[in-house]
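Quiz preparation item.
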């Protein structure tokens, strides 16, 4: 009887091990990515974590709080994080022009609810209003400088640029009269809404639609060595993007919990019509930005030796999207097919 009980116990334990082992193996096989987390967060990442999309594709994302191009690109270039997604398009391009071996492989914000502000009561006629004025911002902001270049102006010299490290300081410069206008980051929308001294004149996507606000960037060798994992990352982020547009109230709560921020702060940008997120690489807008930055003399002198197309990848994203169209249920295919049309518009000649 004792031996029989021992045998039964052994069988039970074996079944438990067999049941648990695959899950343990799956957990051990998760591909780890260290992601630089900006002050406004990344809604796609938050959703993909909360909804289990990263788990579905065997990915483990560790978010590291980092803000500002100096700190984030130092961490990326030195291997202390793997992906930067909140530092615009101009900063990645400047880093690449300086010889850093990076890869732009996708997107975060297409438009980041980035306002152009002025003292309350100012009348706005268009981007030409900035000419001859003091602007809290930088000529590297091609979303302002580029359209002015195309109109025949010299924005680097026809605007007095006042550069600040912190967007809060830009807002204060406009509020106190130090600057006539300010080009402000996503994270200041709520503060601006509370101010009696400043007013939103326009948003950057009013000046330049589809301007490629923030790109996803990694080290080129890391990308090339892990293309299957990056394809899975794109699948998770595409699913998160679909969820974002269908469930904004839930996304606000997720982001509040993630950032420890109040509802008004998060809603000020998440619910803005000027806040457009998408993982599409947007190759054509990025190439346009590279050209404008070159005309402005902002790229490093070494840029003449850089073939920027070697640092842009949209093939892995396209593969992920193509596979998803085949994999998702029939009632979801239409949304993903719309993203294919969006890809063709923004990536193919």
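Solution:
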């Amino acid at each position: 009887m004792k031996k029989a009980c021992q045998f039964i116990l052994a069988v039970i334990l074996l079944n438990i091990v067999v049941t648990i082992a695959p899950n343990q193996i799956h957990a051990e096989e998760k591909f780890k990515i260290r992601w630089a987390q900006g002050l406004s967060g990344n809604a796609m990442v938050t959703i993909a974590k909360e909804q289990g999309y990263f788990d579905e594709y065997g990915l483990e994302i560790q978010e590291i709080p980092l803000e500002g191009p100096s700190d984030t690109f130092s961490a990326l270039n030195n291997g202390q994080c793997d992906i930067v997604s909140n530092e615009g398009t101009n900063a990645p391009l400047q880093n690449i022009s300086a010889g850093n071996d990076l890869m732009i492989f996708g997107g975060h914000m297409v438009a980041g609810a980035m306002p152009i502000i002025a003292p309350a009561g100012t009348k706005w006629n268009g981007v030409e209003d900035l000419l001859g004025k003091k602007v809290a911002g930088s000529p590297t902001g091609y979303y302002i400088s580029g359209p002015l270049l195309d109109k025949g102006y010299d924005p680097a010299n026809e605007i007095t640029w006042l550069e600040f490290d912190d967007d809060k300081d830009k807002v204060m410069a406009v509020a106190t009269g130090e600057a006539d206008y300010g080009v402000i980051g996503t994270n200041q929308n709520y503060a601006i809404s509370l101010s009696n001294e400043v007013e939103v004149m326009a948003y950057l996507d009013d000046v330049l639609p589809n301007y490629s606000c923030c790109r996803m960037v990694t080290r080129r060798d890391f990308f090339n060595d892990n293309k299957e994992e990056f394809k899975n990352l794109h699948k998770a982020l595409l699913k998160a993007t679909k969820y974002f547009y269908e469930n904004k109230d839930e996304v606000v709560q997720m982001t509040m919990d993630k950032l420890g921020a109040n509802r008004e702060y998060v809603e000020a940008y998440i619910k803005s019509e000027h806040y457009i997120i998408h993982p599409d690489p947007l190759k054509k807008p990025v190439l346009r930005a590279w050209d404008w930055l070159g005309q402005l003399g902002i790229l490093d002198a070494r840029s003449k030796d850089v073939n920027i197309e070697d640092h842009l990848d949209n093939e892995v994203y396209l593969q992920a999207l193509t596979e998803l169209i085949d994999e998702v249920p029939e009632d979801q295919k239409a949304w993903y097919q719309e993203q294919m049309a969006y890809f063709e518009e923004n990536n193919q000649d």
